[in-house]
Specification:
It holds the Pfam family IBN_N. This protein is an all-alpha fold. The protein is built from 51 helices and two strands.
Amino acid sequence: MDAGQLAQLEVFCNSLYNATSEAERAQAHQTLLPLVQNPQCMPQLQYVLAHTSSAHALIFSATGLMKLITSHWTSVSDNQKEEMRNFLLDYLAKNGPDLYRSAPMGVSPVVRLLCRVIKLAWLEGPQHQNVTDRVSEFLKSSPLHWVLGLEIYTDLTTDMQPSIGPSMSRYRRTALSFRDTALPTIFTIGIQTLQQLTTGQINVADKAEERRLSKQVLQLACNCLSFDFMGTIPDDTSDEQGTVMVPHSWSMLRDDGIPKLFFDLFTRSCTNQWPECSKLSLQFLVLLAALRRSFFQKEEDRNRLLASMMQGTTGVLASKMGLQDHGCYHELCRLLGKLNATHQLNELCANEQFQAWIEQVYSFTMDSLRHWEVMPNSKHYLLGFWAAMVSPVILLGEKAPKALEAFIQQVTVAYVESRLFMAEASADPNNCNDWDDPLEDEVLRAEQLEVLSNLGRCRYQDTAQHIMKHFEEASRLGQQGLIPQAVFEKKMTWLVYMMGALVGGHASAKASRTDTDCAPTHVVNGELAGRIFKLITLTDAQKTSPEGLELAYLYFLEQFRKVYIGEHAKQVVQQQVSERLATVLGLEDENAVLGLLINKIGKNLQQRYMLEPVVKKTLALFHELAAGINIVHTSDRSPHLIVSGRLLLKNDMVKYILSNHASPEFGFLNHCLSYGKYRTMFYHTLGKLLFMDIRDNKEAFEKFMEPQSLILNTLWQQGVQNPQLLRQDCYKRPLIGLCRDLRGIGLACTSCEPYAMLFEWLVDNPKNPSANRVNLFARALDAWWDDPEVTTPLLKFMAEFVHNKAQRITFDQSSPNGILLFREASSILVTYGTRILQRTQFRDVYQEKYKGIGVSLDMFSHALHGNYTNFGVFELYSDNSLSNSMALALRMCLAIPLQELNAYLKALKPYYYFVELASRGHMSKVMELDTAALTLLMQSVEEGLLSFETGVQMQCCAVVDNVISYFHTQLTGKATQEQERVRRFLQEAPQCLQKILHLMFQLVMTGEFSSMWSISRPLLGLILLHDQHFLQLKEQLVNAQIEERRAKLRGYFDDLMAGVENTMNTKNKDHFTRNLYNFAQVVRTLS
């Protein structure tokens, strides 16, 4: 590249980042893209980096080089790696300070590129690990050189963190090596620099440069302490730090001066008005508070750290310094929460500063709750602080500090008040909220209610009375029209949620404070519930109701269910109870209490079906009641098992629903097609209750199924002569509904008896297979094959119907039912598959093609793996059902391009399940494919070995093992047509399995595969099948190593095959598995 080409490239780079029009940017992108895709362009990009004066060209070349070296590192020679690292270090040393002044945005990409080169080369020898020696030269020069050196360290500690993705195992080993070698030195440099800044040993004349230096070194300190020391790759979706597993050798963290240093840095940063530095100082202290307990050899060391933390936070809280900055406020809340989480209450109380500290935290919390709209998410840590105090305060009893209980109660009350203020503000249309309303955010709401449920356990009766007072007041004002309707609805919604949280928290097995002067708990629960049920009665009498309030009712009912089941169980097992919950509610008995819950469920399904979230949660509650099993603990006997479904069967509303389940009054059943999944959930729940009640009573089952029989018979009459008559809109919804209902009932068939009743209902004429009801679905599919609104629920029902889960499908030895069931699945597959493969145009290829193919393969896999069909019968009696369906299923697999298979893997997981089953028991059918098709199938298996889904990886290993085992069996047996097919495939596509052999060795040597046992089985077969290629591959892998490692690797390969015989018996496989495990362990020490 010459100066003219460089100038032209700079123009394009400027257009890429600063274009005035989209066309100009697109042209620049098209011109520059090849440079960052071809590894041969690395020298050109390096030339640009070395000679450009344009910041945009610098950014482009640095990011392009980073992308290329990350993707093509193995093709970079050792000399190039060394040269690139030295060039980047020299470039930054020479140009870094000027770049900071003229184009600061150009520094970071170059630093990140240097860090990536260091990271990728780290395990390739000690010569690549002397980073601290090279960077130390920066720290001996100007302030900006110092900042630059610290930025290198900061970015390096970030990039070295292991992450999920390709080469994950290698990066993890790199991170652990970095942790043990360079990281302690880097951390020490960071702390020493901070100490020198604080004491004035480093004196930077320019305040801006001092601020930049302070920020950089504080960020570095935080990066070092938040490093993933164990290589566990924790979830980073939250800013909450778990335990910091710092190595024991980092003894400087036990120094009393460390917490004081960072509190001093916080004060200094606040004084200088450097909020980002103040925030980082507190962030480091949060990490310091999270140090593992075992890091401290003596308890005194840990107590001294706690004392320093309490003293420092007390000072910050008293002075309120820096807390007007939202970042500092947030980090202080985190610090308080972390101190409480990592220390027990008795440890906190033992400190002489506890009283002053807890008073300051209380004052800060109350002030924060008065200003609830400021940083509401940060207050979660404060509320969590007090909520975590509840259990120890209750357990310590009289030994707990006297003021704590009152503090917790006042915080609880203030929190309740803040939610009601929030209700008013969120109901005001003119209020521009810059905070998230928890009533609109389910995750946020659940977090807040959980905190309240814990807080409420301290003085349960007092808190309940306070909330009930607000409930009565809001009800009165709302009924008199003294507050706007929107405010009334929001307040009542919050109050219902909070009452539910109180009941749910007190219903748990956790300890709670009881006050002999107050009413018993079940009386308070009854008073809370009585008000809610009264309000429910009022709103149920209205045609419409706010969605938020209805969801709050369901939350309360779910919490009340926990109490009710417990209370009811106690009535069952312990009759001596003075005041029952039912008595408080003014009801006759416990069944009447349960009736209140069921009546609300019934009303919602009848009246509130327009509100989809309400329908969803109502059905979930109904299912929980029907299927729930509770272990209830009582004081006078061992734990008691309560199956709540049996309680429901005594309820009149449940009996009514079971008798009238298809009635139009349950409007959600036919509200809209998108509600189909709720039909399935509804019938799943009803099925559970039905089978619990009738057991194997066929007459009762037939009576329950009468509405479905009516629909099925109507559809049957239309489709029996000509399936195309079913293709009318008037039949579409009934057909979809029928499939959804039957799938729900199928899901409820968890044992032989209920499944047998469903089977006999559908296969009602086994001696005349074509006249069975179940044939309707193949006919309907013939008519509606191109409409996914019909095909998806139909195929899902059939997939459930043929699924032998929990061995529920058992037929007599003399019964042909297993064959009939498989033939029906085969018919469905052929009907759908033949047509979908002929279609070429799709508006939505996922919905219209891949989803259906995925469910079809799932259904066929269930039929193949059901263990209720003797497949040898088909070929013996010249029945083509198996061969036709197998051939078509394989064609469906081959119709999915590899790229699409990866893109829609969630829906297409059955692809690999089917291929594994086909290769396990039907390999002769698979071998009927031509060489090109079989090669394509094996290529998809090769891709699957690289999947992030462990289940897919295991299935692909099993496929290769099945194929190789079949090949060995055929090749060592007598000459047959199957043997000829195997030989022809190996001759025409020898590289197909050789590529898989190569890939498997890569996975083993890089540690990218989790199960050595799973990969060892097919790997042995591949080595024995392609013995000459294995020898070539071994030499290739050995020669790829640097000279001094080659002999070692050759020895490891010799050990791998030591004692391995040319046979595929189990003993030989087990021996090879042991060798492979040892090989995998030692070979990773080379890199």
